[in-house]
Amino acid sequence: MEIASVKTGTYRETTASAREEALSTEAFTRLYNLYQKRVYKYICYRINNHFAAEDICSQVFETVISKYETFSAEKSGFEVWLFAIVRNAVTDYFRRQKKGSHFSLDTLLDFVLPKPSPEELVIRDDNHRELFKALAKLRDKERNIIAMKYGAGLKNTEIAALLGVSESNIGVVVYRSLKKLHKALEAGGFKYE
C-alpha cells in the first residue's frame, strides 16, 4: 500500500487492480483536494501568470485522469509521479512561449497570500521586489528547486526523485541558493525586520 504524505492529508493507494481501473470520481476528488493548492502554487512560482497557471493546473489534473493507469507505486510515489507531470506541463508551457522567454516573479505573492491593507502592500511590495530581483539572479535549476521546495512544499527526497539526483545534492542546492538570495538581498540594501 502506497501512502503519499502531504501537509493537507494523505492519499492511500489501494490495490493494483483498483489502480488499473479508471480513476473514480470520488478518488479523483480526494486527489484534487489534497494536491491542487500545491500544484497551483508551484506553477505560479514557475510562470508568474495567474490565468495560465489555472489552465496548466487543469491540464495537469486532466492528465492525471487520463494517465492514472500508468502510475506504478513500485517506480515512485504518487507525489513524485504527479509533480513529474506538473514539471512537464510547465516545460511545455515555456516551449509554447518560445525559447528565450523569461518569466518574472514580481506578482507571485498576490496569488498565494491573502490581501493585506494598503500600508502593508507598500511595505511588502518594496520588500518582495528585492526578493524577486534576487530570485531572478538564480539559475533556472536553482529557481526550479526553490519553487518545488517552497512553492509546492515538496521534500528534498521528492525533488531528488523528480530530477534524478541525490537527496544530498538537493539539500546543497537549496542551501547555496538561499545563501545566494541572502547575499543578493543584502547587496541590494534589503533590511530584515
Features of the shown structure:
disordered N terminus; globular; 2 strands; mainly alpha; two-stranded antiparallel ribbon; 9 helices; 67% helix; 193 residues
Write the topology of this structure.
Elements: E1 3-6, E2 9-12, H1 16-20, H2 25-47, H3 50-67, H4 78-96, H5 108-112, H6 118-136, H7 140-151, H8 156-163, H9 167-187
Antiparallel strand pairs: 1-2
Count of helices? 9
Lateral arrangement of strands in the main beta sheet: 1-2
Strand proportion:
under 5%
The N- and C-terminal alpha carbons lie at a distance of: 46 Å
Query: Would you report the number of β strands?
Result: 2
Kindly provide the radius of gyration, computed on alpha-carbon positions and rounded to a whole number of angstroms.
18 Å
Residue share in helix: 55-70%
SSE sequence, one letter per element:
EEHHHHHHHHH
- What does the overall shape look like? globular
* Alpha-beta content class: mainly alpha
Biggest sheet overview: 2 strands, antiparallel
Please state the average pLDDT score: 78
| Poorly predicted parts | 1-20
Task: Walk me through the structure.
This protein is globular. A hairpin with a 2-residue loop joins strand 1 (3-6) and strand 2. 67% of the residues lie in helices and 4% in strands. Helix 4 crosses helix 8 (156-163), helix 6 (118-136) packs across helix 9 and helix 7 (140-151) packs across helix 9. The protein contains 9 helices and 2 strands; from the N terminus they run E-E-H-H-H-H-H-H-H-H-H. Strands 1-2 form a two-stranded antiparallel sheet. The model is unreliable at 1-20 (pLDDT under 50). With 193 residues, the chain is mainly alpha-helical.
